[in-house]
Amino acid sequence: MIRAYNVSKVYENGVVALKNVSFKIDKGDFVFVVGPSGAGKTTLIKLIFKEEEPTEGYLVVAGRNLSRLKRRDVPFYRRKIGVVFQDFRLLPQKTVFENVAFAMEVVEASKKEIHRKVPLVLELVGLLDRQKAFPSELSGGEKQRVALARAIVNNPEIIIADEPTGNLDPDTAWDIIDLLKEINLRGTTVVVATHASQIVNTMKQRVIALRKGLVVKDQERGGYRIEN
Amino acid sequence: MIRAYNVSKVYENGVVALKNVSFKIDKGDFVFVVGPSGAGKTTLIKLIFKEEEPTEGYLVVAGRNLSRLKRRDVPFYRRKIGVVFQDFRLLPQKTVFENVAFAMEVVEASKKEIHRKVPLVLELVGLLDRQKAFPSELSGGEKQRVALARAIVNNPEIIIADEPTGNLDPDTAWDIIDLLKEINLRGTTVVVATHASQIVNTMKQRVIALRKGLVVKDQERGGYRIEN
Amino acid sequence: MKIRTFAYFVKEAVKSMFRNGLMTLASIGAVAAALLVLGCFIIITLNINYIVSDIESQVEITAYLNDSLENDQINDIGREIIQIKGVKEVVFVSKAQALEEFKERLKEHKNILIGLEEDNPLPDSYRIKALTPEDVGFVAEKVSSIKGVAEVKYAKEVVDKLFTITRWIRIIALGFMAIFALVAVFIISNTIKITVFARRKEINIMKYIGATDWFIRWPFFIEGMLMGLIGASIAIGILMGGYYYLLKVLYTHIRIIKLLPIKYFYDYAGYMALAGAIIGSLGSTISIRKFLKV
Amino acid sequence: MKIRTFAYFVKEAVKSMFRNGLMTLASIGAVAAALLVLGCFIIITLNINYIVSDIESQVEITAYLNDSLENDQINDIGREIIQIKGVKEVVFVSKAQALEEFKERLKEHKNILIGLEEDNPLPDSYRIKALTPEDVGFVAEKVSSIKGVAEVKYAKEVVDKLFTITRWIRIIALGFMAIFALVAVFIISNTIKITVFARRKEINIMKYIGATDWFIRWPFFIEGMLMGLIGASIAIGILMGGYYYLLKVLYTHIRIIKLLPIKYFYDYAGYMALAGAIIGSLGSTISIRKFLKV
Ligand SMILES: Nc1ncnc2c1ncn2[C@@H]1O[C@H](COP(=O)(O)OP(=O)(O)OP(=O)(O)O)[C@@H](O)[C@H]1O
Ligand SMILES: Nc1ncnc2c1ncn2[C@@H]1O[C@H](COP(=O)(O)OP(=O)(O)OP(=O)(O)O)[C@@H](O)[C@H]1O
Ligand SMILES: [Mg+2]
Ligand SMILES: [Mg+2]
Q1: How many CA atoms lie within 13 Å of B6's alpha carbon, on the beta-carbon side?
Q2: Measured in Å, how far apart are chain A's first and last C-alpha atoms?
Q3: pTM confidence score
Q4: A79 touches chain C (CB under 8 A)
Q5: Cβ pair D205:B90 closer than 8 A
Q6: DSSP SS3 for C155
Q7: ipTM score
Q8: Domains and CATH numbers, chain C
Q9: Are A156 and A82 in contact (CB under 8 A)?
């Protein structure tokens, strides 16, 4: 589903965020991407999402070589991927409901469908009672859950979550991870970049560890620490 | 140092964020504030910081009744408190260095002093090599650490950190907590709102637990869970 | 595009206008202010044109007729003159009338002319008005070639001067109008550009969620159009009201300065509304372009 | 304020201008555009005033003198006239000159006057120009009371008309200028308001870090002032260049329309720069006010 071929990313200011990264994630996989702050996790996700372009190498996602993807095909490609951004990226002028609904409006879902589906996913992330609030009226963890709701509402082929539990208490965090695992069991590929070592250690899923832009570990049923 | 007297906070949209909260934090204390997402932790911090006003009750911080604090005295009051905001609140048009330096410029520190002190704290949080970067060029964890550097640079009487390790890997998170503890040992009052149960459990400090706006636990040498 | 989708875009646009309160007001204000200035100058320019045309139409050619013509012949000459291209008006002035006028002009010295009535040395004449000063030369030539016309006179110098002055006034006025039109477009698009710039992150986010360019563009297009229309309407309202008031004041105080009637500007109001809508919608659409490239 | 702190504020302001590239350009552009429009209209208004004054100064009073005055007496009368308040110019016209001119005016019919040279019925006279049409009536009255003056004539109707027209032209022009000045201030402050609005979070953050209102305000004040100055300079440059060009074109093509010399506007350029700086700095300072309340 996601393949990286010798991908390197150097930002304009000279920071080398990724160095010669290669991996292969298959359809239906559940993968944790771990690594210290600044290791390149978010950069990797941005590349998969085609928010940034690799300096070297290329990625093939859902059968498309991203380097060759035409500009006008990018939106349609992105619709296959649900992303929980580390900085949430909620639309400030839209309510919780509208933020989630927007993802469905983009794919021109019917109004009926939207009014059926959005409350469902808001219920899943535990925010149904806050649906009329604007992002500025939400707590950190609530924003994070809205971002998750938006990412899953269209049943994408791939879900990528960047630190989806950073602002959540352990209980809520586990609910979210369980939700992602459940979605994964229905066939969706899930990639989670996280620092939650307990969760990674307990879940015993595949772990790709980055450090200073290099893949330092790629282990089935791995733990958070590089050494274990 | 910080006293809350029957503080309640109801936001305009009717959300009750805090209900009749009272507590007392003494000079030199190290306190964790925990609680599920949406419990009211950030709201409490905003009240201490006088970003929001309580609907009922009042707070006394550093000997000042915040309800009676004059508008023009607020900046001087705030300078006594170093805050790490959950959403970082870095100035987007300033580099890492300038963001930290700004906190010193505000108190009219000399240029020499600024050029001596800023690199020091950036070193402490491990960001000296990124000092010329703008916030938009930083990873989540890096932003968080800049926010911390800015909070501590003026040696405030009180440090309040809202989820200061949410975007940090466990190792870096521990470095930060150790740093806060060290500052605390030098006499600074430290309040940390966090979801990092491992850290809370290991540190064995005072824990104030909130749930749905109520203080449900206030325990010396407590753990993260309410039950323990 | 489906009607349902279009309705959605309109709804989004209207919602966005309300939620971006200050930005919306700022954009509408910029459109209104810019078009107000432009409108003022259009009104001024058209009125200058109108007054200048009025002055121009005062230019007179005098065709002195041969003595001893029959009345029929005189009438024929009159008819011939009126058919010349560029002639606006022809008036016959008899010998006797000419002498009367002459006396008028001399005022207190008119006793000099006493006794001339019997042996009036002044000829019959036609006074001709041309449509524009440009026509005067041509008309004079044509008239002088008519049989029975003894001599043609006109203030060549005055006509030439007037012609140059009015042409330059027109050029200058149009030049300023062009400048103001450009400035108006600049001010409006400038304002739209910053309001869109302030929302660039929003646009980025929409793209990241998989929205196509057009899906993002349409609400902005409609929003820009509505703001342009509203701004233009405000400008039109102020202009029309102000002009109406000005006309009324001038009418009650002096009737010498004759300005264009207000109904003359109805068409222009329509164009202005159209201009507002076009600049608004295109301004938005062009401004968001670079933020769509993510 | 310490000089060091002030230097810091200036540095912050300049840095902010560069880092907020588009916003800075937008603000400068708005100032330039608004002042350009205002400047155009100031130039137009002042020139209208100038031309109108020129027309007004053409108004003439004729004072016919008694026959049989000595040269000395005539000179005395002239001296007396020139001392009257509101008199701009006095010219003596002798009987002989008057007849000559009369002949001129009659043109082809001047043979009517043959023989009058010997017994010239026309009197000596003084032609007087008043400073403004308002003065004419007063001057005429004063002159008529001078001993030796037989009769005073002036085109009362024309003067009154002219007086009304020129007064209204001035009122209308000043009215438009006032409107444009308001619109210019609105456009500039509108633009500044949105650029500041787009940075409201920044201002909030500064407050949360413990910055006093003045500490935040100063760089904004200076930034606004600089942008106002730069924008005004651009407007002044365009205006002066354009006006210079216009004068040159008019001078080479026609010399009839006499516009104000460019040096007349140097002062106004100074005021405009000042206005830009003031609106810019106050605009910023006022706009940030509400975001300081945190
Ligand atoms: N837009 C950018 N321009 C320049 N450098 C950048 C940019 N974005 C990220 N970087 C740098 O690239 C490196 C990797 O960043 P990235 O965001 O991928 O880290 P991360 O693994 O997600 O870290 P964290 O866990 O803190 O979120 C960091 O050093 C960061 O400073
Ligand atoms: N500005 C606001 N307007 C209205 N409601 C708000 C506002 N800020 C927060 N709330 C609501 O108040 C409640 C408490 O929010 P708060 O941010 O204090 O939670 P928190 O304990 O910090 O949560 P988290 O751990 O997720 O950050 C939440 O339900 C939130 O939606
Ligand atoms: Mg990251
Ligand atoms: Mg919080």
Answers
A1: 2
A2: 27
A3: 0.86
A4: yes
A5: yes
A6: coil
A7: 0.88
A8: 3-55+162-292 (no CATH), 60-153 (3.30.70.3040)
A9: yes
